[in-house]
Structure prediction request, 274 residues.
Amino acid sequence: MSDRYAVMGNPIHHSKSPQIHSEFAKQTQQDLIYSAMLVPIDSFESVAKDFFQNNGKGLNITVPFKEQAFQMADELTLRAQTAQAVNTLMLQADGSVLGDNTDGAGLVGDLITNHQVVLKDKRILVIGAGGAVRGILQPFLNEQPSSITVVNRTVEKAKVLASSFSEFGNISACEFNQLDEAFDVIINGTSASLSGELPPLPDCVVGTHTAVYDMMYGKEPTTFLKWAQNLGASKTLDGLGMLVGQAAVSFMLWRKQQPDSQKVLLDMRKQLQE
Ligand code: NDP
Prediction:
C-alpha cells in the first residue's frame, strides 16, 4: 500500500500542496499518495491522530491549525519551537510524531538560492508580526544579518516578537513612522496584499540596492511590489518560491529525497500566468 500524505486546513480547496508534492513524488519516483483534507474546525487533533493510525506518514498543516499541530506534536524541531507553530508533521519509527516548521527555510532558500539575495551582514526590515513572520525569524537570524527590524500595525506584537527572538541575534521593533533610512532586504509578511492594501511605510526604506519580497503571490505583482518597483528596488519578488520551497523542505524531511523545486516553481509560475 502506498504511503499516505496530506495537507489539512479549513478552507483547503485553494491549496497547491497536492499538486506540488505529487510532482515531487513523480520526479523522485516515490510511491505515495498526497491529498487535501478539509478538517472541521473543532476536530483537528482527532482527524490527525486517525490519519497517522491509518498508514499516514506525514502531514502539512495550514490555516487555522498550525498552533494546534504545534500542541499535538510529541517532539519539535528548534525552528518549530521558536515559531510556536507547525506546518509539517512526520510519523517517526517509534510511532511518535515530529513537528517542524519549514516556512522560514522555504523563504530563506528562495531568497538565497533562487534569487541570489545575500542576508549575511545585511539590514533587514520585516513587516508584520503574525504567524508567518514568527515562522521566519529564527531561520533569518541563523543567516547572521547585521540587524532585523520588525514593524507592525499593532506595534506591541512586533515588540513581543523582537524580545522573544533576541537570543538568536540583533533584532528590534519600531513603529512605521520611526523608519528613516533604506534597508538591504524588505520582507512583507502582512496579509495587507490580500486586500490590495499597502502597509504605511515611508518611501525612504527602499533604495536602489534594496531587494523587496512579498510573501503573497498572484498573477500580477502585488500593490506592495508595484510600490517598491516604482521606488527603484533592485529586486521585487513574490512568495511563490517560498510556497514551493517550504514544500521541498517538508518532502526532504519525509522521504530523504531532494526534489527539483526549480522545475516545479517554473511550471507553477506558468500556470499562474495562464
Ligand atoms: P496573520 O493573520 O497571522 O497575520 C497578519 C499580519 O498582517 C499581522 O501582522 C497584521 O497586523 C498584518 N496586517 C493585516 N492587514 C494589514 C494591513 N491592511 N496593513 C498593515 N498590516 C496588516 O497572517 P499570517 O502571518 O499567517 O500570513 C501573512 C501573509 O503571509 C498572508 O498573506 C499569507 O498568505 C502569507 N503567507 C505566505 C506563505 C508562502 O508560502 N508564500 C506562507 C505563509 C504565509 P496586526 O497584528 O496589526 O493585525
Remarks:
- The longest strand covers residues 3-9.
